[in-house]
Write a sequence for this structure.
């Protein structure tokens, strides 16, 4: 399966930026994230990853999801100017919690259109756990994504009270089909769990346990 090429590797807080990227190179993950939002950090990461196909991605409003759309767009413009090819961002959490679908659609659509123009792969994070027990709301978010067409819809930040849920991924896949990719993140500990999410329809996995997952595949 080459499970490493599904993994967006999340750093171990005990590792330096350099150690994090060297581990990513050793295990040949799909994607890693540069440290902070400054150009020096991004260029340093590119230098370390030179000669690999590992994506060096950015993150905006992560994990809080509290910025206004205008504030987010300033960060997107900054990262676009830097040449960042892929960005995870958190949907406004107040809008998610209050089921403000109009705000959700405006944010997702505006960012998706900007990213298409700037050849950036956008990964929009919805804390699906905040919609637990409300299947209709989960479906509505997926239907908005189907219209807005971000490259990925992501299940969670992995920093809330719950991470990825297999049933959520199955629901997302049933609506999104192949029009929008799915990223599952949070609480994926081993190869068996990773494979279950991939089989359910996930195209990428956010995981701090990336090394354990890869080593588990080869057992």
């Amino acid at each position: 399966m080459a499970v490493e090429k599904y993994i967006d590797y999340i750093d171990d807080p005990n590792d330096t930026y350099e150690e994090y990227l060297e581990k990513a190179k050793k295990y040949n993950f799909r994607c890693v994230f540069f440290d902070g939002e400054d150009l020096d950090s991004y260029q340093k990461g590119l230098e370390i990853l030179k000669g690999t196909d590992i994506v060096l991605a950015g993150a905006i409003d992560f994990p809080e999801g509290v910025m206004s759309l205008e504030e987010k767009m300033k960060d997107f413009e900054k990262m676009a100017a830097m040449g960042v090819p892929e960005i995870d961002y958190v949907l406004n959490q107040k809008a998610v919690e209050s089921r403000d679908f109009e705000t959700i659609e405006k944010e997702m659509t505006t960012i998706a259109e900007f990213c298409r123009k700037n050849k950036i792969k956008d990964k929009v994070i919805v804390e699906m756990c905040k919609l637990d027990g409300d299947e209709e709301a989960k479906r509505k978010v997926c239907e908005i994504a189907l219209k807005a067409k971000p490259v990925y819809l992501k299940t969670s930040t992995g920093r809330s009270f719950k991470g990825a849920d297999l049933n959520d991924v199955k629901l997302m896949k049933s609506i999104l089909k192949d029009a929008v990719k799915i990223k599952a993140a949070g609480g994926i500990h081993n190869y068996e769990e990773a494979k279950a999410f991939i089989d359910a329809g996930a195209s990428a996995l956010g995981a701090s346990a990336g090394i354990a997952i890869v080593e588990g595949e080869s057992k």
